[in-house]
Design goal:
single chain; 694 residues; alpha/beta; Rossmann fold; six-stranded parallel beta sheet; five-stranded parallel beta sheet; 24 helices; 40% helix
C-alpha cells in the first residue's frame, strides 16, 4: 500500500475497528462517536498536533481533550497506534506503551487502564478526567488561560518556551450543558486564540435526534461569543478538515469552533447508519457489517496492520520528536540565561512551594472584636502570593467580598492585552460563572499553576461537578468560600448556606477547613501550601469573630491535626465536651468560661477539619475526644448531618434544621439558639442525662 490516501483511510478505519472491537468485547460502551469522529481526530493528530509520544508530559505539548468522554475507545485506540509511552508518577516516561493492546482488550474491565471514561492519572495521555459532559470543554479554557499566562510570564526574546494549542473534541451534549456556555463566553472575552473546540455535530443523543430538544444555531451563538467559526460539511473529508485546522492556526485574535458534520455509526450516511450505536455495542452482526463496509476483515478482532503504526510514526511521531528536541535545546540555553525563571518552572511542575514562602505571614493579636476570617485570609493570601509568582486566581464576580484580590504590586488583571491588563496578570475575573470557574481552575492546575477560586459558600451548589473532578484528579486547588453561615444575616435563606458543609465533607478527596479565628486561618494556609495531592475548601466568615488569646487557650497550630483541645478542665479531666467549628468556637469559649464559674469541668475542642482529624492516629483522636466521655455537645450553624460520629447517639447537636431567615446577624443567631445560654443549657442536659443513664 503506497498511496497517501490509502494509508490515511487504513489508519482511520483501524481507529474505527479497534474502537468497535473494544466496545464489543466489553459488551459496554459507545462505538458510534468513535466511528463517526475517527477521521476528525486522525487528521488532527497525524497532521497538526505537536506532541512527542516518547515525552508525553513535555511542557509545551499541544493538549488534546476528549470532552465527549463516552468516545474514549477512540482515544485509547489513538494512544495505542501512535505509540505514546507511559509515564511514572513523577512524569518521566518509561519504555512501555501507555495503552498496550492487552489493555485495549480489557476496556471497561476491573483494573484496566482503559476505563469507561477518560481518567486523568490512570492512563498517560489523558489530559483531564472527562465524563460529565461540558467539563472537558470548560477545563480546556483553564488550559488555554494557563498557556497564555505561561507565555507572557516566561517567554523571552529568542526563547519562546510556551506557544502550544489546546484542542478539544466535543459533542452535542457538550454544546447543551450550561457550563460549556459559561466557559465559551469567557474564552471569547479573553481572546484565547490557542483554543480550538471541534464540535462533532452528529445530531444524536441517548434519547434520539437532537431535534427533540436542541435546535439552536450553534454557529451564531459562538459568533456572538466572538469565536471564529468554521464548518466542515463532511467529517470524512480529510482535505476539508485540514483546511479547518489551518484556519484555526491562522486565527490569532480569538478562539475557534470547528463544526464537523458526521453521521454516528459507520461514519457516512448509508443503509448501515446505525444511530443506536451511540448508546450500546453494535452486536456481532452489525460489527461484521461495519468492518465489511470499511473494507476490513470481518472475522478479525483487534487487527492492526504494521503499516498503520509506521505511518503514524513517520508523521505524528517524528514531528513531535523534532519539536521536543528543538524545545529541549532551547530550554537548556534558557536555563543558563534565566536560572531563576527556570527554577520557578521546576517548582511548578513538582508542585513545590518556593523557598521562604511563609516568611511574611501576618501575625494576629488577641482581639475581643476580632475580624472576619475572610479578611484575615485575604491578608495571608496576599502575603503568600508576593512570594509565589504562580499562585493566581479570582472569584465569580465577588473578589471584593471574598477578599481574594491580589493587591499592591500584584493588582494587574489577566485580560487580553489592553488598558485593563494583559496575559501576565494574576487576578482572574470569571464573571458570574461559578461552575465554569471551578472547571477552569482544574485546567489551570493541570497546567502546573497553583490556582484559587472563590465565591460565597452557598454557590458551591453551582460548582459541584467541577469540584468533584478536582477531588477525583487529586488537584491541589484552593477553594475559598466566604459568607459561610447564617452569620451573614440580612441576605436571608437564599444566601445562608446550610447543607453545603455536609455536602463537601461527604466528597472523597476534598479537605474542608472552617477556621475559628485569624490565627487558625494562618494555620489553615500553612496546611494548604503543603498539600499537593487534593483540593482544599477554606470556609470563611463574613462577620467578625474574636481573635482568641493563644496564651490562655490552645495553639492554633493544632489546626493541622484537624481538631485540638482549645480549652480544658483545670485538671484535664472534663465531664463534658464542647465541639465546634468556625464562628461557633468563640460561642463555645463564652459558654466554657461561664461553666467554669459553676464548677462544671468542660473541654472545648475546635474541629476545623474533619478530614484532617480522621487522618490522625487513633491515639491522638482518643486524646482529644476521650471515648469514656459521652456527654457531648456539638455546635455548628449548619446542617447537623454527620456530627453523630463525634457526639454519639446520645450527644446534643446544636445546628440548623431550617434554611435561615433575613434579619441582622445577631438576631438570626439568637432566633436559632446560637448564644451562650443555649449551649450552657445543652451541657446541663447532657450531664443530667449522663447521670440518668448511669
Amino acid at each position: 500500500m503506497n498511496s497517501q490516501k490509502e494509508l490515511d483511510q487504513l489508519c482511520v478505519n483501524t481507529l474505527r475497528t479497534l474502537s468497535i472491537d473494544a466496545v464489543q468485547q466489553a459488551q459496554s460502551g459507545h462505538p458510534g462517536t468513535p466511528m463517526g469522529a475517527a477521521p476528525t481526530v486522525y487528521c488532527l493528530w497525524q497532521k497538526f498536533l505537536h506532541y512527542d509520544p516518547s515525552h508525553p508530559n513535555w511542557l509545551n505539548r499541544d493538549r488534546f481533550v476528549l470532552s465527549a468522554g463516552h468516545a474514549c475507545a477512540l482515544l485509547y485506540s489513538l494512544l495505542h497506534l501512535t505509540g505514546v509511552k507511559a509515564a511514572r508518577s513523577d512524569g518521566e516516561p518509561v519504555s512501555q506503551l501507555a495503552v498496550p493492546m492487552e489493555e485495549l482488550k480489557r476496556f471497561r474491565q476491573l483494573g484496566s487502564l482503559c476505563s469507561g471514561h477518560p481518567e486523568y492519572g490512570l492512563t498517560t495521555g489523558i489530559e483531564t478526567t472527562t465524563g460529565p459532559l461540558g467539563q472537558g470543554i470548560a477545563t480546556s479554557v483553564g488550559m488555554a488561560i494557563a498557556e497564555r499566562w505561561l507565555a507572557a510570564t516566561f517567554n523571552r526574546p529568542g526563547y519562546e518556551l510556551f506557544n502550544h494549542n489546546v484542542y478539544v473534541l466535543c459533542s452535542d451534549g457538550d454544546m447543551m450543558e450550561g457550563v460549556g456556555s459559561e466557559a465559551a463566553s469567557l474564552a471569547g472575552h479573553l481572546k484565547l486564540a490557542g483554543l480550538c473546540w471541534i464540535y462533532d455535530d452528529n445530531r444524536i443523543t441517548i434519547e434520539g435526534s437532537t431535534t427533540l430538544a436542541f435546535t439552536e444555531d450553534v454557529a451564531a451563538r459562538f459568533a456572538a461569543y466572538d469565536w471564529h467559526v468554521v464548518h466542515v460539511s463532511d467529517a470524512n473529508d480529510l482535505s476539508s478538515l485540514a483546511h479547518a485546522y489551518k484556519s484555526f492556526l491562522a486565527t490569532r485574535d480569538r478562539p475557534t469552533l470547528i463544526i464537523t458534520h458526521s453521521h454516528i455509526g459507520y461514519g457516512a450516511p448509508n443503509k448501515h447508519d446505525t444511530r443506536e450505536a451511540h448508546g450500546e455495542p453494535l452486536g456481532v452482526t452489525e460489527t461484521r457489517l461495519a468492518k465489511e463496509f470499511y473494507g476490513c476483515d470481518p472475522d478479525s478482532q483487534f487487527n492492526v496492520n504494521e503499516e498503520v503504526c509506521q505511518h503514524f510514526d513517520r508523521q505524528f511521531g517524528q514531528r513531535g520528536a523534532h519539536a521536543y528536541a528543538a524545545w529541549e535545546a532551547n530550554y537548556a540555553a534558557y536555563r543558563a540565561q534565566y536560572p531563576d525563571l527556570a527554577d520557578q518552572l521546576d517548582h511548578m511542575q513538582q508542585r513545590i512551594a518556593p523557598d521562604k514562602w511563609d516568611t511574611s505571614l501576618p501575625a494576629f493579636w488577641t482581639d475581643a472584636k476580632g475580624l472576619a476570617t475572610r479578611d484575615s485570609s485575604g491578608k495571608v493570601l496576599n502575603a503568600i502570593a508576593a512570594r509565589m509568582p504562580w499562585l493566581l486566581g479570582g472569584a465569580a464576580d465577588l473578589a471584593p467580598s471574598t477578599k481574594t484580590k491580589l493587591i499592591e504590586v500584584l493588582e494587574k488583571s489577566f485580560q487580553a492585552p489592553g488598558a485593563d491588563g494583559d496575559y501576565s496578570g494574576r487576578n482572574l475575573h470569571f464573571g458570574l460563572r461559578e461552575h465554569a470557574m471551578c472547571a477552569i481552575a482544574n485546567g489551570l492546575s493541570l497546567s502546573g499553576l497553583r490556582p484559587f477560586a472563590a465565591s460565597f459558600f452557598v454557590f458551591t451548589d453551582y460548582c459541584r461537578a467541577a469540584l468533584r473532578l478536582s477531588a477525583m484528579m487529586k488537584l491541589p486547588i484552593i477553594y475559598i468560600w466566604t459568607h459561610d453561615s447564617i452569620g451573614l444575616g440580612e441576605d436571608g435563606p437564599t444566601h445562608q448556606p446550610i447543607g453545603q458543609l455536609a455536602g463537601l465533607r461527604a466528597m472523597p478527596g476534598m479537605i474542608v477547613i472552617r477556621p475559628a479565628d485569624a490565627n487558625e486561618v494562618v494555620s489553615a494556609w500553612r496546611v494548604i501550601m503543603q498539600t499537593t495531592d487534593c483540593p482544599i475548601s477554606l470556609v470563611l466568615t463574613r462577620q467578625a469573630v474574636p481573635t482568641l488569646d493563644r496564651n490562655k487557650y490552645g495553639s492554633a497550630s493544632g489546626l493541622a491535626q484537624g481538631a485540638y483541645i482549645l480549652a480544658d478542665a483545670s485538671d484535664g479531666e472534663p465531664d463534658v465536651l464542647l465541639l465546634a467549628t468556625g464562628s461557633e468556637v468563640a460561642l463555645c469559649i463564652a459558654a466554657y468560661e461561664e461553666l467554669k464559674t459553676e464548677g462544671i469541668n468542660t473541654r472545648v475542642v475546635s474541629m476545623p477539619s474533619w478530614e484532617l482529624f480522621e487522618s490522625q492516629s487513633q491515639a491522638y483522636r482518643d486524646s482529644v475526644l476521650p471515648p469514656t466521655i459521652t456527654a457531648r455537645v456539638a455546635v455548628e450553624a449548619a446542617s447537623p448531618f454527620g456530627w453523630e460520629r463525634y457526639t454519639g447517639l446520645h450527644g446534643a447537636i446544636l445546628a440548623m434544621r431550617a434554611f435561615g431567615m433575613s434579619a441582622p446577624a445577631k438576631e438570626v443567631a439568637s432566633h436559632f439558639g446560637f448564644e451562650p445560654a443555649h449551649v450552657i443549657n445543652a451541657v446541663r442536659e447532657q450531664l443530667a442525662a449522663k447521670g440518668a443513664r448511669r
